[in-house]
Amino acid sequence: MNSDATAAILDIGVLVFREGLECILVLAAVTAGMAGSSAIYRRPVAMGTGVAALATLITWRIAIGVVDDLSVRISALALQAATGLLAIIVLLVVMNWFFHKMYWTGWISLHTRKKQELLGGEGHAAPSKLWWGLAALGFTSLYREGFEVVLFLQSYRLKLGPEPIRYGVLLGVLFSVIVAVLTFIAHRRLPYRRMLVLTGILLGGVLLVMVGEQAQEMQLAHWLPTTELPKLASVIPAWMGLWFSIFPTVETLSAQVAAGLLVVGSYFAARRTTQSTA
To answer: Which among 19, 26, 173, 216 has the fewest CB atoms less than 10 Å away?
Structure first.
């Protein structure tokens, strides 16, 4: 297996684990308090989660069909550039700390509030409505993460084929399952925040590499101009481009700096917002 495939497996594994971790946090909020006689309510949540996993696989097949259909209509280079841009957008959403805080605070609160409404009206609501409502919470907890992963993986599939994706997804799912078992079966309290920060740092590195690579592909597809920096060309060795997608052009370096500033800026913006509302 070549270095590109190995790097892709690690990148995909980190992203899938990150999305799995966030799904586990939402499900933990949904199932909190479902113990003893209330444990029965975990069943529809688990059922909805299982259906979401199946729906994610169906979405993957649909995405493959759409991308393969586009591949016969437009050039391979343009399609790679487009799917790469889509993958970067997904990463920017995952890595945007300000948006992520609002996104997740609201998302978890929404699920918790909906659960309380369903269980609070238990004596008045029809059993089928309660069951389907809890199943819907389980479904949405996983499917949104699965949908983001499906969009992210299209670029890798076009470049490297299905094998690295298979190994990367299995790696991420394996670690997610371990955390899920410790959370829901062993009832262990894990350092979720630290894990989110660590995976965020790793994904930050993935983002910078992908942005540099994407900018170069857009230059090759003539979507972006190419402004060489001869002085930097003698300083930046070839292996920096191979491993980290750092190229001596204004466009690629500017794109990486902008992406880095966006992620770091969103972190401080989220932190400042938290302090001002405390």
So the answer is: 173
Model confidence over 164-188: pLDDT tens digits? 999 999 999 999 999 999 999 888 8
Q: Which two tokens stand for residue 80?
A: 């790679």
Q: How many CB atoms lie within 10 A of CB 150?
A: 19
| pLDDT the model gives residue 278 | 54
What are the Cα distances from residue 196, in Å, to 15, 24, 214, 252? 11, 12, 25, 28
* Nearest alpha carbon to residue 206 among 2, 78, 18, 1: 18
DSSP, collapsed to helix, strand or coil, labels residue 6 as helix
* Domain count within the chain: 1
**Contacts (Cβ under 8 Å, ≥6 apart) of 87:** 151, 152, 153, 154, 155, 156, 210, 214
Torsion of CA 178, 181, 186, 189, to 10 degrees: 70
Angle (CA) 199 200 204, round 5°: 115
Listed as ranges, residues in the chain with pLDDT below 70 are 1-3, 97-105, 121-126, 274-278
* pTM tops 0.90: no
Q: Which domain holds residue 213?
A: 3-277
